[in-house]
Amino acid sequence: RRRARSGLRRRHPRPAVTYTAELVTDERAFAGLAADWDRLYRRCASATPFQSHAWLHSWWQSYGGRGRLRLVLVRHGGDLVAAAPLMRVRR
After folding, report:
1. What are 8-22's pLDDT values in tens digits?
2. What is the DSSP string of 3-28?
3. Residue 27, C-beta contacts closer than 8 angstroms, at least 6 positions apart
4. Model confidence over 13-55: pLDDT tens digits?
């Protein structure tokens, strides 16, 4: 005897996708992100030179003295997949 097929397939659970967010506030830690940042930069077809680690880090060293560094990083499985370079300024 055969069972009627309902059109539904049995799904196997996939492992959870893990993303982590990190806040970097230290200039030395920013400098240490060069390799990860450069890998992310190379993967982004629409990236501009102003999004490169070299440009952003040199900008921070030149103009960041009046604010507080705030880098928001998102990682997936340890790989950097998003970065938001920010500066907090009190007025």
Report:
1. 677 777 777 799 999
2. PPP-SPPPPPPPPPP-EEEEEE--HH
3. 60, 61, 64, 69
4. 777 779 999 999 999 999 999 999 999 999 999 999 999 999 9
Cα angle, residue 34 at apex, residues 30 and 39 outer, rounded to 5° = 130
Instruction: Give the integer Cα–Cα distance in Å for 49 and 58.
Output: 12
In the chain, what are the domain boundaries?
Answer: 19-88
For the chain, the residue count is: 91
> Exposed/middle/buried for 14, CB within 10 Å: 0-12, 13-18, 19+?
exposed
Q: Measured between alpha carbons, how far is 63 from 85 in angstroms, rounded to an integer? A: 13
Asked whether the whole model's pTM tops 0.90, one would answer: no
3-state helix, strand, coil in the chain (%, to 5): 35, 25, 35
State the angle between helix axes of 53-63 and 34-43 in degrees (0 to 180), rounded to the nearest 10: 130
Four-CA torsion 20, 23, 28, 32, nearest 10 degrees:
20
